[in-house]
Amino acid sequence: MLKTFTTGGVHPNENKITASSAIERVAAPATVSIPVSQHIGAPSEILVKRGDQVMAGELIAKSGGFVSANIHSSVSGMVTKIEDIPSVSGYTQKAVTIKREGDIWDESIDTSDILIKEISLSPSEIIKRVGEAGIVGLGGATFPSHVKLSPPPGKVCEILLINGVECEPFLTGDHRIMVEKGEEVLTGITILMKALGVTKAVIGIENNKPDAIKRMIELSKNYAGIEVQPLKVKYPQGGEKQLIKAITQREVPSGKLPVEVGAVVHNVGTAYAVYEAVQKKKPLIERVVTVTGPTIKKPGNYLVRIGTSVEDLIEVAGGLPDDVVKVVSGGPMMGKALPKLNTPVAKGMSGLLLLPQEITSRKESQNCIKCAKCVSACPMGLSPYLLMTVSQKELFERAIEEDIMDCIECGSCSFTCPSSRPLLDYIRFGKAEAGNILRSKK
Amino acid sequence: MDVVIITIVSLAGLGAIAAFILFLASKKFQVFEDPRIDDVEEVLPATNCGGCGFPGCRAFAEALVKADDISSLNCPVGGDETMQKVASILGKEVSKAAPMLAVVRCNGSCSNRPQVNRYQGAESCAVAASLYSGETGCSYGCYGLADCVRACKFDAMYMDKKMGLPVVIEDNCVACGACVDACPKNIIEMRKKGPKGRRIFVSCVNRDKGGVARKSCTVACIGCKKCQKECPFDAITVENNLAYIDYEKCKLCRKCVIVCPTNAIHEINFPPRKKPGAQKADAESVKV
């Protein structure tokens, strides 16, 4: 019997079209627009001005607060504009536009493919380096990684969990990283273990990725303290709290951080980025984006420079098919439909889904039939139908009592609702308002 | 016969004792309430809309009786007439508040503001606003999902299906402000109704730079400051690429309406112009 989390969960169609497509490096685009807010927390402070020459990997914006991250240029060239551009949500965000000239990398960066296993840095130096490299959680939450590596005082971390679950349908970036960059990922995990001072790490992988499981088990024999745990396929196993429950059977208390139960979770992609930052001095300036969809010409896993426009990336994947009506940033369950295509690829963009009408259109919302399917599907054990109603009626105090802040916005409730009710739409709104109320109380 | 007498006497006795206890209790626990509160509540419109800033007419009546100076308090629904009655009951001074009206400051109809994407989520502006900027290139404009219409308790608003924008019915609007609070984009503003309902306002809230704003909407304010230069009364300010007309200073001369290159300034309830340049303005004047 394979392990999995116990409360709720759903089984959407996997649609892992690109599972066997090797990661393909995309040539640096002619221009990049790098947003200065690619993480949770305060926007970074811009350090460059118009007309400045920058190299790939050069710092262009420095962390603007505790939960913020550095941002580096992803190409070499000249800063042409610092302006407001549309973000994933359609509102404007500040971004630095760089016109590429050649492709010169910062001298300190080691661009060779040679594997360096030896870790020479001390834990505090590792955390410093990870922070300098601007690494954020690449699973999509974009929480700055160096903050996660420094547990709050009084809390002890016992185990490091590595998220190789990739439970979102369609996405295969982490899968390919494990298959192709196994050694680097494992070295990255060893670095993370050293930084956290733990001796045990477990990589959780769902068993729909047998090649990744096999490869990681094989390689992990050479690394002390790293185990691979195959998991039963169930969405949303990639959620931090669900993964902790699945692997360690521990439950993170409501409103608390995972470190409360002695666990820290990092994504496979993040472990790879940490390897590159610590061993190769390479900041986070490119990431793997799965560009996929049932009708596109060249679906694949593309290694893209941060700041490349979504339009350019779609061109690389064979252009926008005529029947595509929705472009989603991220996976189909938690991703966001893009209102405009001229937005850049940011650190948190794990996939780009090009979906035709028939599989993406929402059915008309009907009355609630009190079947409680949403309650059984909710992985956090909440009552989505109730949270929707109280949010709709703007009873936010009641919503707080019903633990709306525990919602991880995984979308299992909306996915499972036979009446196609917009459950998550309202819950997300209620959660935002409830968050404002809680913040104003503090 | 005895039984009947005993019953009547004992019940009457019990009644008398209970009445005495109740009498004592009503004296002991009496809460003094100013009788004028009832009188004031009587003249208030009893709509409980909250437009005055208090939770219902009763609470407003209490506040009116309690406050020494009620010149800052106003019932937008009843208007001056009601406030005069209140003043005569309480013997306090009320200020003469100009009648107000809700004004929708967006003219991004389907023809003026092309749709660039389609929203399929929950039918609510508040939900849409928590997700993204909207179906058009303009991230400041109206979603057209009618939160304001649902908030209106006086049937003073409806959605114009063709334009995709809410419309205020002047005669019904009582300026309670419910729509202003309901709009997540702060498009609706309370403005002075003006003499004979005449008023001039900038029907746009877009703060993008001129070129960007114009690209997403043909009737957007582009912040060109022509109106500001034209205005003889200093009533217009342009901040963050957006013009705003101060209704206290505006003398309704309509000069700004003529110079606006994008027709973003609207004049309402004015008689048709006779001078040259009138044609253009006539075409744009919106009759409600």
What would you say this structure looks like, in words?
The complex is a heterodimer of chains A (442) and B (288). Chain A has 442 residues and is α/β, with parallel strands linked by helices. Chain A contains 14 helices and 17 strands. Chain A has helices spanning 123-132, 145-149, 173-180, 182-196, 210-220, 240-248, 268-279, 310-316, 357-360, 373-377, 384-392, 396-401, 412-416, 423-441, and strands at residues 24-25, 31-35, 45-46, 53-54, 59-62, 71-72, 77-86, 92-100, 159-163, 200-206, 226-231, 263-267, 286-292, 300-305, 324-329, 336-337, 351-356. In chain A, the strands form four sheets. Chain A has a six-stranded mixed beta sheet with strand order 1-14-13-17-15-16, with helices on both faces. A four-stranded antiparallel beta sheet of chain A has the order 2-8-7-4, with no helix packed on it. Chain B has 288 residues and is of the alpha+beta class. Chain B folds into two domains: 36-90, Orthogonal Bundle (3-methyladenine DNA Glycosylase II, Chain A, domain 3), CATH 1.10.15; 100-268, Alpha-Beta Plaits. Chain B contains eleven helices and eight strands. Chain B has helices at residues 2-28, 35-43, 57-66, 79-90, 125-131, 147-151, 178-182, 210-216, 226-230, 255-259, 278-284; strands at residues 100-104, 157-160, 165-168, 188-192, 199-202, 236-239, 242-245, 265-268. In chain B, strand 2 (157-160) and strand 3 (165-168) form a beta hairpin. The longest helix of chain B is centred in the first third of the chain and has 27 residues, at 2-28. The radius of gyration of chain B is 27 Å and the shape is elongated. The model of chain B has no long low-confidence stretch (mean pLDDT 88). Classes of the chains: A alpha/beta (442), B alpha+beta (288). The interface between A and B is medium-sized, with 21 and 18 residues.
